[in-house]
Structure formats: C-alpha cells, structure tokens
Fold each of these.
Amino acid sequence: MVISSSFLMVILGVIFTGLGMGVLIPNANIWVMQLAPIEIRGREIGRLTTFWFMGQFLSPILLLPLLKIISLAQLFYVISIILIGLSLLFFILHLKRKK
C-alpha cells in the first residue's frame, strides 16, 4: 500500500478525484436526460440524485462490519471485483437484449 509522504501529493490526489467526480455527475445527468422521455426527466434526475447521495451516506454504514473483518485495502479489492462482475453481467445482458 502506498501512502503519500507529503501534503502536496494528498492535495493532488484530491484535485484529481474532484475533477473525476465533476465530470461524472454532469455526464450521468445528461445520459439520463437523453434516455428518459421528456415527461419524466425531472423525476429520473431526482432518482439519480437520490441514489447517488444514498450511496454516499449508506456505504460507510453498510461496509463498517466488513472493515472489522478485513482491512480497508482488502475491502476495496472485494468491492472492485464485485463491481467488475456486475459491469460484465450488465454488458452481457445488454448484448443479449440487442440481438
């Protein structure tokens, strides 16, 4: 595990993370607005925002019991494997639906 040895590196990491989130949120909103019919766009953006903030709020609460069993690095590894698996599953389902 790499830990930053200077405050400057921490600030740079936060800047890049902020830029990533700053690009992701508007792109997700535009994507939802393109997919949703005009009549329900506001409701769908509201749902996206709700689940976005619910995930930020609930993730520490739901993952705390796992942190008592495994380390933070192992937890990130497990969650990343789960998310990669879900991504592949949705991709495969999307391909099957297209045919």
Amino acid sequence: MDLSAAVEAMNALGQETRLRAFRLLVEAGEEGVSAGEIARRLEVPHNTMSTHLAQLTRAGLIRSRRESRSIIYMADLAGTRALLAFLVQDCCHGQPEACAPLLDAVLPLAACCPAPQRPA
C-alpha cells in the first residue's frame, strides 16, 4: 500500500458513521450485510449510507456483491490487512522485541482472520 492509498483509507475511517459501518461489516464476515440493513442498524438515511459505503469501497476497505435486488457489503480483508501492514511496517526498527506489545494485541485476532494462503 502506498502513502496516498493509506491516507484515503484513514480518511474513510476518520468519520464516525463510516467507522461504525466498517466495524459492523468486519463483524458480519463473508456473509456481509445489505446496504439497507446497514442503514437501518446505524439509523442513517439510505442515500447518506450509500455515500459512506462508496467512500469505504473506493478506499479498498469494503467490497460488495449483488444478490437479486440487494447489494451486500462485506469487509475487504485484503485491503484491511494492507492498511494495517502499512501502519506498522517500520515499528520495530530491526528489533522485533519492540513490537511485542503490538503483536500481543493483534495475535488473538489472527485465529479468526488468517492471512490468505500464498500459492507455492
């Protein structure tokens, strides 16, 4: 992830409704949530929610699929992983023990969100 993509992602998450929507979609997993249901749960007008979802999509943090007449949104774990990696890529300065507190906080999440397998 380059600096401009990271800035776009952080800007997308830097607004309360978008952050709440993103967290809702992370929690929902691959099943996702329809745009209308997101708006209902967050108590946001549909057209406003649509704008927020578009910004999160452009930032690479969520993606969507069409199911009949509904658009289902889900967190884009690859985009989220890229942002997290960008944020912490230089935290250790060559000293892995310096990152221990950060890794201790993140490692419990690895069990539920493993990285995709790389082809051999």
